Amino acid sequence: MGRELAPRPSGADALEAVIAAGDLNNLSASQRLDLYQRTCDTLGLNPLTRPLEYLKLQGRTIMYVRKEACDQLRRIHSITIQIVERVIENDVLTVVARASTPEGRCDEEIGSVSVAGLRGEALANAQMKALTKAKRRATLSICGLGFLDETDSEAVATVAVPALAVPTRPQKSPAEYYRELAIVAEEKGLAEHILPIDDDMPADEIREAYTFLKKAIASNASA
C-alpha cells in the first residue's frame, strides 16, 4: 500500500504559521505572491526592484530584505545614517551606525565581520561589508522592522529560495502605442492623419508615424 501524503494545511493554518513563526512554507505560490505585494505596499516599496527575497532557514521559509529595500526605506522616511565608531577587537571589525529621522528619533546598530588574516582587497571588502551591515541594520531598526537583511542572511542561510516572480506590465509594441494614439486622433476628428500600421513594419517607421500623428493632435489642440 502506498504511503499516504500528509494533507496540506488549510489557508487558516498556513496564515497562522506566517503570523506566529514567520514560516511561509505552507503558503501556495499565489499566497506568497499576494504576501509579497502586500508587504511592499505596506512599506511603500517598489516590488519591481525585488526589494525582498525568500530564504530557507532551519526548515522554515522566511522573507528577508535586500539592499534595494533599505535604500528605499531611507528615502521614504528621510533617514540619515552616521557612522559613529569603527573598532577592531580580537580580529573582529565592528562598525556602529546611527540612524536618525527629521523628527529627532535616533537608533544605533552594529555590523561586525571577522578580519583575521585579511589583507589588501579582502580586508577592504570586509570593511565595506561591516559598514553595509551596520547601515542596513540601523535602517531596519529605526523603521521598527524585524526582517533579516541580506548580509545577515549569508551567515545563517542553508538553501536559498528564488524570489517569486513579481508580475510586470507587458511591454507594448510600437504598433500598439500607435493604435492607442490613433484612437485619440479619431476621436478628435483627425482620421485623415492616421496611417495604416501593422506589426510587421520596421519599428523606426512606426515611431516616425507616431511622432507625425502626435504633432497633428498637438496642432489641432492649439488651433
In percent, how helical is the residue content? 40-55%
Q: How many structural domains?
A: 3
Low-confidence stretches: 1-11, 157-162
Mean pLDDT: 79
What's the main sheet like? 4 strands, mixed
| Main structural class | alpha+beta
What is the radius of gyration computed over CA atoms, rounded to a whole number of angstroms? 26 Å
Question: Which term fits the overall shape?
Answer: elongated
Q: What series of H and E elements makes up the topology?
A: HHEEHEEEHEHEHH
Strand-residue fraction?
15-25%
What's the count of strands?
7
Tally the helices. Answer: 7
Placed side by side, the strands forming the largest sheet appear as 6-2-1-7
End-to-end C-alpha gap: 83 Å
What's this entry about, in short?
The chain has 223 residues and is of the alpha+beta class. The protein has helices at 11-21, 29-43, 67-76, 120-142, 150-156, 174-187, 203-222; strands at residues 52-57, 60-65, 80-89, 92-100, 106-114, 148-149, 159-161. The protein has three domains: 8-77 and 143-169, no CATH class; 79-138; 174-222.
Q: How would you describe what is shown here?
A:
It is a single chain. The longest helix is centred in the middle third of the chain and has 23 residues, at 120-142. With 223 residues, the protein is of the alpha+beta class. It contains seven helices and seven strands. It has helices spanning 11-21, 29-43, 67-76, 120-142, 150-156, 174-187, 203-222, and strands spanning 52-57, 60-65, 80-89, 92-100, 106-114, 148-149, 159-161. A hairpin with a 2-residue loop joins strand 1 (52-57) and strand 2. It is elongated, with a radius of gyration of 26 Å. It is 45% helix and 20% strand. The protein has three domains: 8-77 and 143-169, no CATH class; 79-138; 174-222.
